[in-house]
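ARCHIVE CARD
Drawer: 12
Card no.: 0347
Subject: one protein chain, sequence and derived structure
Cross-reference: see card 0346
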Amino acid sequence: MVKHNKQLSDLVIFTPNIDHGGVEKNLFLLTNFLSKRFRNISLITFNPSDKKYFDKKINLITPNIFFNFKNRLFKNFLCTILLAKTVLSRKKTLILSFNSNLYATLLAKVFRSKIIIRINASHELWAKNFFKKKIFEFFLKLPDEVIVNSNDLKKEIDKKFQIKSKCILNPFDKKKVSREKKNNLKLFKVSKKIFKILFMGRLVDQKDPFTFLECIKLLSEKFKFKALIVGSGYMKKNILRFIKENSLEKKINQVDFTSKGIQYLNQCDLFVLTSKFEGLPNVLLEAQFLKKYIISSNCPTGPREILLDGRAGDLIKKNNPELFSKKIINYYLNRKKKIYKRKIQLGFKNLHRYDFKTNCEKYLSLIKKLS
């Protein structure tokens, strides 16, 4: 345990939007870890109901509003005002920004506060066009430190924006996953003999759920299986319409985001990730820990790194349902062969790279260095 140091800056974690995906799992784990190392730690976010995910020692700062607005720009604006008030009320503040990094960076520079920003996904998410790229080329040089969560993402960001980011891998808490996986209910609601395929993630374009749906459509007459999509998002209605229009109700179901995600993962036979881009998807680490076989798109960035260039699972060109279906059939027919068991075991053995304490301590060291 690191002793409290009176000379350290007050730490303010800035994250206006909490969507309860992989990024947020890292936020919860890291924030609660740091709360045991700092006397003064605050978290600025929009929704006060998220307080339940954080240690009681953390000072949660939220707008005094009775409505949960969905507009992200509005949330960012209100939380940035709260950040300004917080910084002005303290002598020395260090900001750790998890999202809305431009707002936080600008404010930090205006008030001469130090800031660390964390980038958790490929630049394809937030610098798609020429003008955005130029804006980020300028702003990414302003923070005191830029943290990324995978080595491939570091290479991409450093090259495209001419900066020197610092890679700290996601802190993966094995004990937490072990606790959460326990469940006596049959979540797939089919016989144990039926092959179970899982897609789990936000129902947004980045995750490309329609490649998964097209893949299931191709597989529908090939063998007996049950597929499940676990997640919420703006594409839900279109997904349900696709399932109905293609008469796939008996082959695939959709379940909204749930805290039982690990339990669904624990009960599947195969996990499929079809994303167009990532950062370092936590769900792949969870699948490896639970010794599930993984078929993933070889998207930027994360899957290739986690799956060891395909030695710990299958990597497929993104947006290719035909190839996904072929790989799934191949695994289904040959899943008892040693080659697949070796791949699963190799992924499990290499999870030490994401050790919870080791990677959280790296954040702590960087924060202490800038305080």
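Annotation on reverse: The chain has two domains: 10-171+355-370, 175-353. The chain is about 40% helix and 15% strand.
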